[in-house]
Amino acid sequence: xxxxxxxxxxxxxxxxxxxxxxxxxxxxxxxxxxxxxxxxxxxxxxxxxxxxxxxxxxxxxxxxxxxxxxxxxxxxxxxxxxxxxxxxxxxxxxxxxxxxxxxxxxxxxxxxxxxxxxxxxxxxxxxxxxxxxxxxxxxxxxxxxxxxxxxxxxxxxxxxxxxxxxxxxxxxxxxxxxxxxxxxxxxxxxxxxxxxxxxxxxxxxxxxxxxxxxxxxxxxxxxxxxxxxxxxxxxxxxxxxxxxxxxxxxxxxxxxxxxxxxxxxxxxxxxxxxxxxxxxxxxxxxxxxxxxxxxxxxxxxxxxxxxxxx
Length: 310
Fold this sequence. Notes:
This protein has 310 residues and is α/β, with parallel strands linked by helices.
């Protein structure tokens, strides 16, 4: 089975955590393709550990396009890499499964992915993805966005996508997608996810939620036991578990626990930007008892040290 991750160095730690979680639960060997603009920054970290169930292959990627909606955004150009990355694969394989770097695996995904991959090959569709929005809804904002994007039916989350590569290549989807991106003139509120959805426009096989289980970090009522009942956990929302504010919520605390287990380090903080990070640090100082932090000074030192790197 073949997975592909697309990222830059800002998500190296999250990707490593995803690899660790997958390596620990998979029942079969998995090939991991990694599209990265600075491959060595991640490969040197991978070499420090044993991933006996994963075989890594790096694809160096470069962007030559003016990409939509990156100014003042919490994402970088790496979010668009999945548009180009599949074209870089030269191996003779019949499928690839895209995985977001901020996805952790709670259970073995192999047999479930295999089932939906087989269903995809038998179908008329090129991709398999999980729907998160439909045109038939009572939410006016959703309907307006569908109309603005000229989409007809449904909208998927791009965190996990199964690709039938034979159909993808035979239909020239790679070059068509790049052309679609170049000619895209609307404001892509959800970046590459909008590009992919406007391109496929509802023509995809449905992927079960358990393979792309989106969990909003700010959800104070989330039950961790229920989350762990799914195969994956995908951290959704503007607040991430590696933001200072993320440690106010159960999902953020869970993520930090997993980080400590894997790396034997106290806290992983990777800020959104300097101004927001400082605001979040000040809020922590004022209300530290609301955060799952057991070493106030150490956490504060880690947070403040990040300011000078922004």
